[in-house]
Amino acid sequence: MVNPKHHIFVCTSCRLNGKQQGFCYSKGSVDIVGEFMEELDSRDLSGEVMVNNTGCFGICSQGPIVVVYPEGVWYGNVTADDVEEIVESHIENGEIVKRLQI
Ligand code: FES
Question: How far apart are the CA of 97 and the centre of ligand 1, in A?
Answer without folding.
Answer: 20
